[in-house]
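To assess whether ligand presence alters the predicted conformation, the chain was also submitted together with norvaline. Input:
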Amino acid sequence: MKHFINLKDISSKELRKILVDAKKRKYARKKLNNLEIDKGAPLKGKLLIQMFEKSSLRTRLSFFLAIRQLGGSALTLRPDELHLSKGGESIEDTAKILSNFGNAFMLRTDSDKKLEEFKKYLSIPIINGLSPSSHPTQVLSDVFTVEEIKKKTISKLNITWIGDSNNVLNSLIAASIKFSFKLNIGCPKNYQPNQKITNYIKSNKNMITIYDNPIKAVNGADVIFSDKVISLNDKVDKNKKLRDFKNFRISEELMKLCPKAIFLHCLPRGTEVEENVFKSKKSKVWQQAINRVHVQKSILLYCLGKLR
Ligand code: CP
Ligand code: NVA
């Protein structure tokens, strides 16, 4: 049984194996409808239990389709309907029940500690569907999308992130280390990655450069990533933060400085990207979103020991 909590805890070899499987599966079901099941129904009879303590559209839908396409089923729990959220039941007992009823648990939470607590008591795999410190299913899927569009291994590409030092960036940093790709980060000085992250970067093969200037950060980029300046439950002075990021907007002018670059964004979007860039041919955000289904299928297979 394997958990999927942080990319940094999974070997490069296993992450690559997940992507290879996702590519084969996506290709093999080209002519199938969303709810049709992959040949062999590898997760027939399996139940994915998912719970979102924070809003979600894509993660919810993509995990639902992922388990269905593998022949299993999904059940989404509402945290406000559980005893756990009102203090009426412990994580330990909740985890025991989840383990007896289901085969995998996907959790989106505001607490990294809660993921670890669940991991301690579950006897089924836990998947991190976004936490304050990372968004691993999103970023692994984004690596898939980049390679699919650019038709090259990501290690041969220059990736740029323009935006806040948030959960998605943390996972992108881990991906840069695992897949050995160059990553430029463009972010205002006061919002750059914290010491824990910079220490992690330094203690690994460092292909990451942090700039406080978006123009420098996009130089030579094959891919520009961005994300909302204000993340879910971000407890900051929102107006100030938005003002601080005003020079870090993805504009047509910025995109012109890196003519080969495509634009990716995990969604939902805010004001960090101009409408004309978001809706331009360079923007591949819809393809990026649907690929979550394909990669998460292989993540589920990895967790349940069924990866070919
Ligand atoms: N990108 C992403 O995780 O979207 P949701 O918040 O809608 O799940
Ligand atoms: N960084 C964003 C990602 C949303 C999918 C957030 O945490 O809100």
